[in-house]
Specification:
heterodimer; A: alpha/beta; 15 strands; globular; B: mainly alpha; two-stranded antiparallel sheet; 3% strand
């Protein structure tokens, strides 16, 4: 029996092609939407990770292992993500990365944690590059989850600190996606604005279905009717692009405080609205940040991928992965996880970040930028609009922190 | 407030007319075959993608004419070589055929154009604000969509009610054998009706594509609403479909505009009770439940008036 099996494997293995080289490649399962409403950002993310993998491979990979990004379409659906994660694990993947949708993030974090408890020796790490629901590093925190994007409450803290000093803000409208992340944005915005600027009136608080709305004009009519002067939104993917597009069509003139206006379709719509430097976004880096190394990187990235670098955090993630593996001198997930804790790292846009041991939240400098006409020292526009992101405010690592309630179960 | 009402009415009527373009074909096909055409929304999607592709090659205006013709031709082929053959095996076979077709079309579309949205833009000629009410712009393209829908609605009405062709079609729907005995080719009538119904869905696709999002899941997103419309209006009733389309369009748009919740009607719950499922239900606004309102209407109409608003049969 055993001999037959060995024989079968001997026959089949060469047919499978890279089954023989599987030992040498380090596979990273990229689980994100490659279809549906999140596809535009999901595909951008995939291209980014593939670029990063190529870049690392050109310099010998990680500890001699070539990196391969395995794209898996989760349709922004938590159940589908778990199916894809299982598929990835069965194919020998020990590292998965995901970003779009905190509902997906929570499901994956839980899945990975259970998998690692049940299958000691076959651990899997979950590298989160964009799911920013604070619960992932608080009540639902997991030892096997690491987040490189600033969590929603860190971003809102910085954003409201900036809004606090803008005296012209009187009436704010909140519009967010109806799921864990959108709800956390709205709750944080209400709480923090209430504490910092009690005079600001919240004139609307909207939750709409996630990635299902194809025409935002009814919502824009409502914002208009509310008399708001500013809108705060955590929308991403097509939800921010279509929201801004509907605003442009209706000629809505307000200030926009967003998390992700820079994603696919957003810049084009902002240019159409004609809102020069009235749309703000909060990120861990952006094209015109002024940091020489980051700007050179942006240039090379755009030349090759033909896309803006939306995810400087993905660069940080992959580089830190390499640093941690080298520190541990192993690509074993358990050792890499231990090496990542409290690892200090010089981020792409300059400044030092640290992977906080308590909750596995990466703490880093963050930037508020506005979108509009460019000045001389800002070479990068977006989506060929001629407009680009301009630095408004930088928040250093020490100030971009919020405490965590995470009680981490360590293996 | 007045501004919100005016804009919402415009948006609602527009969405309603778009639904009508789709449901008119679906409901006529239903009267004809006696089964729902599950692939109808897929013809809408094909219209949008053909419109996108032809716009790239030959421009928007020729595409507006050609794409629906193409979709209509595909529809006729489906009737002639698919449905006519399965007809003798009964309704279940026909239903399954359209059901399978819907999936096949979705897969083919995503194979050709990919799964992410395509860049289908409003033609430059119509890319300007048509008018401004209370300082809100209304895009010219939306007015154009509205105009196209109204023109087609009127044309359809005239053809069906005022011409000989319409007379034969109507007769063939209810008394196919008698029409056949009178020397008309009933099979061809059915094929043409199916083709025209598909072409109408195609037009809806071409004009809705740039305003909404053109991607491979657009059929699946719109399909269920379509069934709500024709069941609500009464299966097989054209005026019913018209009224139902407008009602659903307006209800959905206005539901978004309303902020009312149980909490705002009856006051907030005692905060000491703490968060629970009840507080969630209590605080949910009409705007948040907007997407399910049409389905709620469907359930209610089936309970109160199973034949639909203007339907005639019980089943």
């Amino acid at each position: 029996m055993m001999r037959k099996l060995t024989l079968a494997i001997a026959v089949v293995a060469p047919m499978l092609g890279h089954a023989a080289s599987a030992q040498d490649t380090l596979k990273i399962g990229y689980i994100d939407p490659l279809s549906g409403g999140g596809a535009s950002v999901g595909e951008g993310g995939l291209k980014t990770f593939q670029y990063l993998a190529d870049e690392l491979n050109a310099k010998g990979g990680i500890l001699g292992h070539k990196i391969e990004i395995v794209p898996l379409d989760n349709k922004t659906n938590p159940q589908e993500s778990l199916v894809q994660a299982q598929k990835a694990i069965d194919a020998g993947v020990h590292y998965i990365t995901q970003g779009n949708g905190s509902s997906v993030g929570a499901a994956l974090s839980d899945f990975v944690t259970k998998n690692n408890t049940r299958n000691p020796g076959k651990e899997v790490l979950y590298f989160n590059y964009a799911a920013v629901d604070p619960s992932l590093t608080n009540e639902k925190c997991s030892y096997w989850h690491f987040r490189w994007d600033a969590s929603s409450d860190i971003k809102m803290e910085a954003l409201t600190n900036y809004m606090k000093d803008t005296a012209s803000i009187k009436k704010v409208y909140l519009i967010n996606q109806d799921y864990s992340f959108g709800q956390s944005v709205r709750t944080d915005a209400r709480k923090m604005l209430g504490a910092k600027r009690p005079d600001i009136q919240i004139v609307g608080d909207e939750l709409h279905p996630l990635l299902k709305v194809t025409d935002f004009s009814p919502y824009i009519a409502k914002i208009k009717a509310s008399g708001a002067d500013s809108v705060v939104t955590g929308n991403w993917g097509q939800d921010i692009a279509l929201l801004l597009k509907a605003a442009a069509d209706a000629g809505l003139k307000v200030n926009w405080y967003t998390y992700y206006a820079g994603g696919a379709g957003g810049p084009t719509a902002i240019k159409q609205t004609g809102l020069d430097h009235q749309v703000f976004q909060i990120t861990e880096g952006f094209a015109n940040s002024g940091n020489k190394a980051a700007m050179d990187y942006e240039k090379a990235f755009r030349a090759k991928v033909n896309l803006s670098l939306w995810y400087p955090r993905a660069v940080n993630e992959m580089r830190m992965f390499k640093a941690a593996a080298e520190k541990a001198n192993s690509i074993d997930p358990v050792k890499v996880a231990a090496a990542l804790e409290d690892l200090k790292f010089e981020v792409l846009d300059g400044g030092t970040g640290i992977m906080r041991k308590d909750d596995h939240q990466f703490l880093q400098p963050i930037y508020i930028s506005s979108f509009g006409k460019l000045t001389e020292n800002e070479p990068f526009d977006e989506e060929n609009t001629g407009w680009g992101w301009h630095l408004v405010s930088k928040v250093d690592t020490e100030k971009a922190m919020v405490p965590t309630t995470c009680k981490m179960a360590r293996p | 407030m007045l501004e919100l009402i005016v804009i919402s009415t415009l948006n609602g009527v527009l969405f309603g007319m778009l639904l009508f373009l789709l449901s008119s074909g679906l409901t006529v096909i239903f009267s004809m075959m006696g089964v729902l055409n599950f692939a109808h929304a897929s013809f809408y999607m094909l219209g949008a993608f053909f419109g996108f592709q032809l716009t790239k090659w030959i421009g928007f205006w020729p595409a507006l004419v050609l794409a629906p013709l193409l979709v209509g031709a595909i529809g006729m082929a489906v009737e002639r070589y698919g449905l006519r053959n399965t007809h003798k095996h009964g309704h279940v076979a026909e239903l399954l055929l359209t059901f399978g077709l819907a999936f096949a079309i979705e897969e083919i579309v995503s194979m050709i154009w990919g799964k992410s949205p395509v860049d289908y833009r409003v033609p430059a000629l119509l890319d300007f604000p048509a008018f401004t009410i209370f300082s809100t712009n209304y895009p010219a393209y939306k007015i154009f969509m509205l105009a196209v829908s109204v023109v087609i609605f009127v044309a359809l009405l005239i053809v069906l009610k005022r011409t000989r062709v319409g007379l034969i079609v109507q007769a063939a729907l209810t008394h196919p054998h008698m029409v056949g005995h009178l020397g008309h080719n009933v099979g061809r009538v059915f094929m043409v009706v199916f083709g025209v119904g598909s072409a109408l869905a195609g037009i809806a696709g071409v004009i809705a594509g740039p305003a909404l999002v053109t991607q491979s899941d657009m059929a699946a997103a719109l399909g269920p609403i379509l069934f709500v419309v024709i069941v609500f209006g009464g299966l097989g009733s054209l005026p019913g479909a018209f009224v139902a389309s407008l009602v659903i369009g307006l209800v959905q748009t206005f539901a978004v505009a309303l902020n009312g919740s149980l909490a705002s009607a009856f006051g907030p719950l005692d905060p000491s009770a703490g968060p629970s499922v009840l507080t969630d239900i209590w605080n949910v606004t009409i705007a948040q439940v907007a997407p399910i309102v049409p389905y709620l209407l469907l359930v209610i109409i089936l309970i109160v008036r199973p034949m639909g608003l203007m339907g005639t049969r019980e089943s």
